[in-house]
Amino acid sequence: MTNQLEEEFIKMVKENKEDFYKVAYSYVKNEQQALDIIGEATYKGLNSLSKIRERKYMKTWFYRIIINESIASNRKNKNIVYDTNILENMTEDEIDKDEILDLYNAIDELSDKYKTVIILKYMKQMKTKEIANMLNMNINTVKVQVKRGVDKLRSIMGGKA
User: 160 Cβ partners below 8 Å, 6+ apart?
Assistant: First the structure.
């Protein structure tokens, strides 16, 4: 049973590795640090598989581990450096890279609770219900945090957002 669960977990990590990496990277803005976070999260996930209540929530559960590891990594390493290469991959046509960098800077100024829901909602394009399940929160709480996070972003950016 445990071997089957471990195999299922490893398969899920491999199938979603790019999405997991993007979430970690959105927090730390450093390729090597994001890869380290995924490695540490995978290790912790494998050692904590018995805590999964339902297999269908394995991916959600692992996202939570990645987010927690990313936040912990940011607390350890306060000096965040932006990698402008991500801008090349994320932007097309006419989006101004300076505006995107300003947005990243503004997102970094948000508290962790707002940063998390903003990243999941707008960068990962997750539905509010998915975010609520992932973070083990009431759906209305997520909606309020998204709205407040957007309001704070607007304030930080001087009404540009």
Answer: 99, 102, 154
Let me know if 60 is exposed, middle or buried by CB neighbors in 10 A (0-12, 13-18, 19+).
middle
* Cα–Cα distance, 70 to 24 (Å, whole number): 6
Would you say domain 1-81 falls under CATH 3.10.129.10?
no
Backbone angles phi, psi at 111, to 5 degrees: -70, 160
Domain ranges of the chain: 1-81, 92-161
CATH topology for 92-161 is Arc Repressor Mutant, subunit A (1.10.10)
Does the pTM exceed 0.70? no
DSSP codes joined into one string, 31-73: HHHHHHHHHHHHHHHHHTGGG-S-GGGHHHHHHHHHHHHHHHH
At 47-75, the pLDDT tens digits run 999 888 888 889 989 998 999 899 888 88
Name the token pair of 104: 């990243």
CA atoms within 13 A of residue 11's CA, in its CB half-sphere: 7
3-class SS shares of the chain: helix, strand, coil, % to 5: 80, 0, 20
User: Given this model, what pLDDT does residue 44 score?
Assistant: 94
Closest C-alpha among 101, 5, 96, 104 to residue 50 = 5
The average confidence (pLDDT) of the chain is 82
